[in-house]
Amino acid sequence: MPLVASCAAAVMVSTLGVTIPAAASGAPTVTPDIEERDLTSVDEDGLEAPGARSASPATAQTTNQSTTNLPNLLRSPDALTALGTAPIGTFEKGSSVLRPLSLAETPDQDAEAEPGASDSAPGESESAPAPDEAESTESAAPDMSGGVKEKTEDGINIAAISDVLDVPDSRSSVVGVTFANSESVTIEVRTKSASGWSDWYHLEEDNPGDGTPGTEPFVVSSATDVQIRVLGDEAPEDTRLMVIDPKHSAADAKAVEDNAPVAPPSTGGAEPVGAQPAAAGTQPLAVQPTGASATAGSGFVPGSASVENSSVKKVAKPAIASRKSWGANESLRKGSPDYASKVKAAVVHHTAGSNSYSAGDVPGILRGIYSYHTKGRGWSDIGYNVLADKFGRLWEGRAGGLDRAVIGAHVAGYNTGTFGISVMGTYEKSAPPQETIDAVNHAIAWKLSANGVSVKDRATVGGRTINAVVGHRDLGSTSCPGAAFYSKMGQMRDAIGKMQSSGAVESGKTEAPKPEPKPKTAIESFYEGKEDLLGKPVTKEWDHAGGKVVTYEKGYITWSKKTGPQLIRGAIGSLYKNEAMRNKLGLATAAEKGGLKGGGAFQKFQNGSVHWSKATGAQATWGTLQKYWGSKGYENGHLGYPKSAPTCTDDRCEQLFEGARLVWANGYGVTEFSPHGNIEGSARDLNVPQAGSADEESAEPGSGPAGPGEGSAGPEADTEDGTDEDSAPAGPGEGSAAEETEAPAEETPRETEQPEETEAPAEETEQPEETEAPAEETQEPEETEAPAEETQQPEEPKKDEPKPEESKQEEPKKEEPKSPAQLEQEKRDAVLATARKHLGVPYRWGGSSPRSGWDCSGYVQYVYAQNGIKLPRTTSAQRNAGKVIKASEAKPGDLVWIPGHIGIISETKGQMYDAGSSRTNTSKRSYSWMLSRGAVFIRVVD
What residue intervals traverse the membrane (predicted)? Predict the structure, then answer.
């Protein structure tokens, strides 16, 4: 399992039993709300929440999606073992039962395990079910309607899951999990914002051997709800979930305002550090505390730095806001600070968690982490010496004096003699802003130069020789400070070296000539007059989606040459605050418009739209599902407003609307489910796109996830007579309105023997609502018996009976009419003959022609139309066009169906004719894989 970026504190030092007095009188104080809950069992309400059983990104990477034609797309949440695949984890010796990996484990970790570490929970291998028992459990009762199962969709056991918990959406909060004993489990968290639920995020366990075991703290921003789950056989004993609301303080805004972002220091001559007096209020290095408190457990050897670099020039101390400024309650920490003889190296971290916090949230986030470390984990103080926010501000972390060599708790085994600085946020995919990196560089340059250490030095720390500036990942099994941030380390060392070689003085001592005022940008001009509407700017202009964006206190202004300046605010602005949503939507292309159904509003973006209603809030739509929604009339149709954003993988997208849950699967189109999970295949659509709908043009052609030939049909989807069979409005997949009305009349040139059959599809194009009345179609004699023309011809001599000899010749046929069973068998044989005739026809999503290709429902519709049986266009409608029968009653010529796929049962037991995918095209093959998904058998031939 890939390591998740994390930098939770790793080791705590021993503390004295002395309590530090609270902050001085008059200092702003805020008491965070701390909610604790048991997390040792499955909360049924929590398990039923949308996406509660979704696979996490780490486990989904191991899913083998090439073993079947419909892998993990529209199936029930049965285990992957039913498909012969395995989720991520390890197998116990002598057993085929999977044990999920813990956060701290890797598959080859056994050889390097620490003494006393346990490979599995006690009794785990003995209590695991036998392989046969596990297999029968998974396949006995496949669930097609979203029923609750205590497993993820890729088969990993959910040992515990919380209910959906409210968090304040107006400020950031902190969550974490503590437990009595470490177990082989995986702990994950997800958050819900205006854009819907996030992916499950892996919370790394952090067990430094001191205090209470638990996970790293997780910062929640721009969210309304949070949920946590434990994966594995059994949750650890006394597992507790902590939700910390640090609250807002009246002093927070002032603290942010007073703590200006650190400006890059100007350079100038300065004396070597060795000639400088000690900083005010501190002791000289020669008389730093010694003895137990200075060296206990530190492994520090005085003078062990490779170079006592007297040529390093002093770098001015940057502005660092005090603990008092962010409201640290000094009564929470325990004991007295411990000190090393000097600082020999700096370690760079990131805190992990949300990057969507605002500047005003920062003091509260610091209080939340501090409360979790001290109240939840039982530590003496916050772990880092200094923290930096994404805006370039520095904040004092661990108490004891910024100018002294305070021993922190930021990296296991290397706390003594190091300076721990952490940037708030997660920086795996993108590095912190340059102003933040500049602030970190300045702080490190100052701290090392104050101790006579060059960035080029190497020092012995914890019995190991390390560089003077390292990332957390250099010292432990973690991805901290994030791949993107870590890639900047070389440039950071160079920048720190330049500061140390030239010296850095307080900026502002030498007045630089005032530059001429720059002309206003388009965003600055657009902002004029909107100061009260948007508040003050929070950021400078930053690049995004081919344009520029400025973040304000109450919204955004986006700009590009094509779109011009656009305002985003209110509920839509709150949704746009989410970084992932911003990246998906791009820039606004028009202003927000109201007047929609029920007082709703919407706004268009480069890659989709955002709709708002009082009942659903602001929700985004894009791609194939947006097109499908548009074909149903947008908010005016039976689907109503969206209630969540699309959740997509490479092969599947899902989105919840007021009227249905839409699921798109690669190669299988769009299927409608009820909002509660039950299949609503019989639902018909009486709504068509309404002219004048506020967003009737919001769908962007080709923006869906389908690949070439499997998305909206393009010019290549020609019928046999050269017309475009997919010219109906935006039909994404088999569930589209275009496909429901699409008629197989395009096959007229092939229907020379039965011309009367070409009328049946034509009727369907005019009456798509016939999908609700298939029973009437199969009862009409002229429809069901149309291909058997020879059975009607003997009646003609009956009208011309004057010739007795002719009458005699026809008598044997009159005396022996075919029984209903014979007629049914002939019709079944004819269906199978037609099905065999077209083996090898290419698969094409949205197609229904043997010349240009077809998908599964297009093939089925065509075969039965050739034999006088009209079927609707989509799989769900075809499933409801006949009678559901038992599997034991199924005959050749009947249909076998699961959501998103349908086939014709062949004359060979256990096999079917179907158009499965571009890999199989139209073929004869086993349908056993459909049985494991709860296949339904349908009879349309009688």
Answer: none
CB atoms within 10 A of CB 380: 25
Helices (H), 101-230: 124-127, 131-140
Residue 900 lies in a domain: yes
Query: In sequence order, what DSSP letters do the residues of 312-367 get, joined into one string?
Result: PBPBPPPP-B-TTTTT--TTSSBS---B-S---EEEEEE--S-S---GGGHHHHHH
What tokens does 235 get?
């949750």
Whole-number Å distance between alpha carbons of 366 and 310: 36
Q: Are 252 and 212 within one domain?
A: no
Regarding whether 376 and 361 lie in a shared domain, the answer is yes
Across the chain, mean pLDDT equals 73
677, two tokens: 């999970």
The backbone torsions φ and ψ at residue 67, rounded to the nearest 5 degrees and listed phi first, read -90, -20
The Cα-based distances of 499 to 492, 508, 599, 711, 849 in angstroms read 11, 16, 58, 56, 72
Summarised one tens digit per residue, pLDDT across range 129-147 is 343 433 333 333 333 333 3
Whether 337 is in a domain gets the answer yes
Q: Please give the residue range of the domain that contains residue 284.
A: 247-505
Alpha carbon distance 134, 560 (integer Å): 57
pLDDT (tens digit per residue) in 748-804: 333 333 333 333 333 333 333 333 333 333 333 333 333 333 434 444 444 444 444
Is 306 in the same domain as 357?
yes
Nearest to 667 by CA among 603, 605, 734, 611: 734
In a domain, 879, yes or no: yes
Mean pLDDT of 594-606: 95
H-helix or E-strand spanning residue 441: helix 434-450
User: Where is the domain boundary, 244, 265, 287?
Assistant: 244
465 and 584 inside one domain: no
Q: What is the pLDDT of residue 812?
A: 53
Q: Measure the CA–CA gap between 857 and 114, rounded to whole angstroms.
A: 57
192 and 273 co-located in one domain: no
Pick from 432, 544, 414, 422: nearest CA to 487: 432
Q: Strand (E) positions, 365-417?
A: 386-388, 394-396
CA gyration radius, the chain: 34
Q: DSSP string spanning 134-170?
A: HHHHHHHS--SS----SB-TTS-BEEEEPPPEE--TT
pLDDT band at 686 (very low <50, low <70, confident <90, very high): very low
Q: Hey, is 772 helix, strand or coil? A: helix
User: Are the beta carbons of 742 and 725 closer than 8 angstroms?
Assistant: yes
Average pLDDT over residues 254-277: 61
Whether 217 and 257 share a structural domain:
no
Residues in the chain, total:
942
Question: Is 151 domain-assigned?
Answer: yes
